[in-house]
Each structure stands twice: as C-alpha cells, then as structure tokens.
Amino acid sequence: MTNASSAALDPKLLEILVCPLTRGPLIYDRERNELISKQAGLAYSIRDGIPVMLPDEARPLGEGEA
Fold first, then answer.
1. What is any Pfam family matched here (predicted)?
2. Which of 1, 26, 28, 43 has its CA 20 to 30 A from that of 57?
C-alpha cells in the first residue's frame, strides 16, 4: 500500500507549475516531497499529491539548500 502523501508528482504537472512569486521553475524534491523554488528561496509542500503553492505556507530554504 502506497502512502498518498509520498506518491510521485505527475511529471506533466511539474512542467506547467511555476513559483507563484517569481514565475520561475520549480525542482521536485522527491525525498522531502516538496517543490523547490531556488529563486524565491522557498520549498512548497505537497500534501496528498497536491502542491500547496501558497508562499505563506512555504518553508524557507536553509543556507545549504539555496
């Protein structure tokens, strides 16, 4: 049984999603189940297979991540 929160993100969805702040590209971090915006310095979580693209709920990237 696969956990829905750790399910892989649809590659087609990743192609069309952009950072809501910078309109820049996002990088899928499968290990953390997040979408990373290096330009904005934010990581957007993916909950139940749905990206939460709200800057207020995004995690700031640490120094080593940016």
1. Trm112p
2. 1
Task: Tell me how far apart the terminal alpha carbons of the chain are, to the nearest angstrom.
Answer: 34
User: Residue with structure tokens 């929160």?
Assistant: 5
Q: Is the pTM of this model over 0.85?
A: no
Instruction: Tell me if 66 is assigned to some domain.
Output: no
Question: SS3 of 65, please?
Answer: coil
Nearest Cα residue to 61 out of 34, 24, 30 = 34
Specify whether the CB–CB gap between 59 and 47 falls below 8 A: no
Question: What does the pLDDT look like over 21-40, one tens digit per residue?
Answer: 999 999 999 999 999 999 99
SS (H, E, C) 1-63: CCCHHHCCCCHHHHHHCCCCCCCCCCEEECCCCEEEECCCCEEEEEECCEECCCHHHCEECCC
